[in-house]
Amino acid sequence: MSFDVFVHKFENGESVPLDRDAAHEVLAPYAAGQEPGADFVQVSTGRGESADVYFSMPTGITFTRFGGEGIMDLLAAVLERLDATLVVPGGPTVVRRDEDREHLHPALRAEWPVVVARTGAEITAAIVSS
Asked: How far is CA 50 from CA 13, 37, 75, in A?
């Protein structure tokens, strides 16, 4: 896929800081390139699938230049570990549980579809169908 998606956690309609250490723990076994102290890591599942991951703000993680089943499964693992939401600009907002909808920023609920998806395959299907 050639677009960016954003991992955020919402509470009471506001984006809150993510546990960046937990995200790094999930991504570390797949790190193909990383600069110490940098807010960037390139991950690869070893099947020719990769993604660039940016930790540019405390409340969000950006996945860019990504694709493939393994990367989508890795993205699902990050969402699970962080109890987070995936925001796809111009596409769906992906939550892990139906009750997570109430925590989203009101604009996300009003402007784009909100879809429950827990696995990489379910996230891919939600993006493709939007």
From this structure: 32, 21, 11
Residue with tokens 């109890």: 83
Token couple for 94: 């992906």
Dihedral, CA atoms, 79, 8, 84, 108, nearest 10 degrees? -120
Q: 3-state DSSP call for residue 32? A: strand
Distance CA 129, CA 127 (A): 6
Alpha-carbon distance of 124 to 122, in angstroms, equals 5
Q: What is the pTM assigned to this prediction? A: 0.93
Query: Over the stretch 70-80, which tens digit does the pLDDT of each residue have?
Result: 999 999 999 99
Give 20's contacts (C-beta < 8 A, 6+ positions apart). Answer: 55, 58, 61
Cβ–Cβ < 8 Å for 42, 53: yes
Instruction: Report d(CA 129, CA 1) in Å as an integer.
Output: 14
Burial state string for 2-34 with b = 16 or more CB within 10 A and e = fewer than 16: eeebbbbbbeeeebeebeeeebbebbeebeeee
